Amino acid sequence: MSLANLGSHWWVILIIVVLLFGAPKLPALAKSMGQSLRIFKSEIKTGKDEDAAAKPADGAPVAPGDNAPKS
């Protein structure tokens, strides 16, 4: 498969998307995809921040269930 044929596949996919969703709906579809991606990225960042906060100070790995307070 040459690089010239690879580009034609993207055109076919683009035409199918336009036929399925219709040209007037594409801006709204792109906007909702952008918002979803922004939410996804913020959730990943929040998860990383929570993981960093839950990590013990000595850097030892935390096993599941080990973060319960010991009495």
Automatic annotation (TrEMBL):
Keywords: Cell membrane, Membrane, Protein transport, Translocation, Transmembrane, Transmembrane helix, Transport. The Tat system comprises two distinct complexes: a TatABC complex, containing multiple copies of TatA, TatB and TatC subunits, and a separate TatA complex, containing only TatA subunits. Substrates initially bind to the TatABC complex, which probably triggers association of the separate TatA complex to form the active translocon. This is Sec-independent protein translocase protein TatA. It comes from Conyzicola nivalis. Part of the twin-arginine translocation (Tat) system that transports large folded proteins containing a characteristic twin-arginine motif in their signal peptide across membranes. TatA could form the protein-conducting channel of the Tat system. HAMAP family: TatA_E (MF_00236). GO terms for cellular component: TAT protein transport complex. Belongs to the TatA/E family. The keyword tRNA-binding does not apply. GO terms for biological process: protein transport by the Tat complex.
